[in-house]
């Protein structure tokens, strides 16, 4: 139980949140990725997960990014008969990415990331205070 | 009986307090890191009972093993490789703050606790260096 293991825990949180940010960026970047054939599927939204695991070295519950799952909700569709992926009725399946949900997720990831950074700076200040005892 | 400087009741009590703040900082960091993990509930360390330590005299203060936070349930993990003999008591999370996936960490609450912990730790370290300053005065050197 010392400050260095506290910093390790906070670092695990930072890593997990930045992994989540990466998945959100993928979703947003692919918000318009449709298929090129009528049979093909467009981009399917991906969902990051978190797993809490016991780090035996420091004896604490750290967090790690879990498997990245896919969102199984229905695709949206758009009427565009000239599109190469349009079906017989002229509809094109578009990805099930909702930019509003993604930006809310992004804000939440950012908030959690900042909270972990706050833990790091607070722990650093405590560590410096400990060193100040030596100065007398 | 020879007595080392750190066995002085004042310094020993402050040492226990500082250890507790260190342990608490770790538990709070766990809560923040797991703020988005499903089914994770926020935890906190039980404060050591300084009143009991004071009434127990210097002997009780010196044995820091007795100062470990209470382990209220057999399923609780011993923290930090058991150096503190520490267990963690699960705090009751407010149900209305529980997210659909079962996470009950309130980030604002944790931030508040962390800054409180940091300030109390600063107080303890300041008192510790003042205590050392008293000793320096006693041996005839200017205190820092």
Please state roughly what percent of the residues of chain B sit in beta strands, choosing from under 5%, 5-15%, 15-25%, 25-35%, 35-45% or over 45%: under 5%
What is the residue-mean pLDDT of chain B, rounded to a whole number? 75
Overall domain count of chain B: 1
Helicity of chain B, as a percent range: 40-55%
Report on the biggest sheet of chain B: 2 strands, antiparallel
Tally of separate domains of chain A: 1
Task: Tell me the series of helices and strands of chain A, N- to C-terminal.
Answer: HEEEEEEH
Q: What's the total number of strands of chain B?
A: 2
Strand order across the biggest sheet of chain A?
1-4
The tally of helices of chain B reads 4
How many strands in all of chain A? 6
Alpha carbon gap, first and last residue of chain A: 24 Å
What features would you describe in this structure?
The complex is a heterodimer of chains A (136) and B (144). Chain A has one domain. Helix content of chain A is 47%, strand content 18%. Chain A has 2 helices and 6 strands, in the order αββββββα. Chain A has helices at 3-29, 99-135, and strands at residues 46-47, 50-55, 60-65, 69-70, 76-79, 91-94. In chain A, helix 1 (3-29) runs antiparallel to helix 2. The longest helix of chain A is centred in the C-terminal third of the chain and has 37 residues, at 99-135. Chain A is elongated and about 80 Å long. With 144 residues, chain B is mainly alpha-helical. In chain B, 48% of the residues lie in helices and 3% in strands. The longest helix of chain B is centred in the C-terminal third of the chain and has 32 residues, at 107-138. Chain B is elongated, with a radius of gyration of 18 Å. Chain B starts with 8 loop residues before the first helix and ends in a 6-residue tail after the last helix. The chains are: A alpha+beta (136), B mainly alpha (144). Chain A binds chain B through residues 1-3, 5-6, 9-10, 12-13, 16-17, 20, 49-52, 54, 58-63, 108, 111-112, 115-116, 118-119, 122-123, 125-126, 129-130, 132-133, 135-136, and chain B through 18-19, 21-23, 25-30, 32-38, 40, 77-84, 86, 107, 110-111, 114-115, 117-118, 121-122, 125, 128-129, 132-133, 136, 143-144.
């Amino acid at each position: 139980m010392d400050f260095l293991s506290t910093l390790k825990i906070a670092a695990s949180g930072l890593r997990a949140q930045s992994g989540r940010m990466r998945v959100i960026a993928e979703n947003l970047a692919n918000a318009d990725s449709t298929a090129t054939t009528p049979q093909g599927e467009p981009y399917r939204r991906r969902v990051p997960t978190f797993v809490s695991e016991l780090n035996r070295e420091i004896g604490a519950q750290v967090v790690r990014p879990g498997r990245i799952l896919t969102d199984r909700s229905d695709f949206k569709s758009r009427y565009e008969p000239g599109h190469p992926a349009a079906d017989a009725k002229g509809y094109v399946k578009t990805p099930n990415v909702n930019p509003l949900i993604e930006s809310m997720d992004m804000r939440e990831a950012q908030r959690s990331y900042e909270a972990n950074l706050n833990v790091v700076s607070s722990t650093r200040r405590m560590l410096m205070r400990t060193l100040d005892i030596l100065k007398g | 009986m020879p007595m080392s400087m750190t066995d002085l009741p004042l310094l020993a009590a402050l040492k226990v307090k500082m250890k507790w703040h260190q342990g608490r900082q770790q538990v709070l960091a766990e809560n923040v890191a797991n703020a988005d993990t499903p089914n994770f509930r926020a935890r906190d360390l039980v404060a050591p009972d300084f009143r009991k330590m004071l009434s127990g005299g210097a002997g009780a203060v010196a044995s820091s093993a007795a100062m470990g936070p209470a382990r209220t349930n057999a399923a609780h993990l011993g923290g930090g490789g058991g150096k503190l003999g520490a267990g963690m008591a699960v705090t009751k999370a407010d149900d209305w703050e529980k997210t659909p996936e079962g996470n009950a960490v309130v980030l604002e609450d944790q931030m508040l606790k962390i800054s409180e912990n940091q300030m109390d730790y600063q107080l303890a370290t300041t008192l510790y260096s003042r205590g050392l300053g008293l000793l320096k005065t006693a041996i005839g050197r200017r205190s820092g």
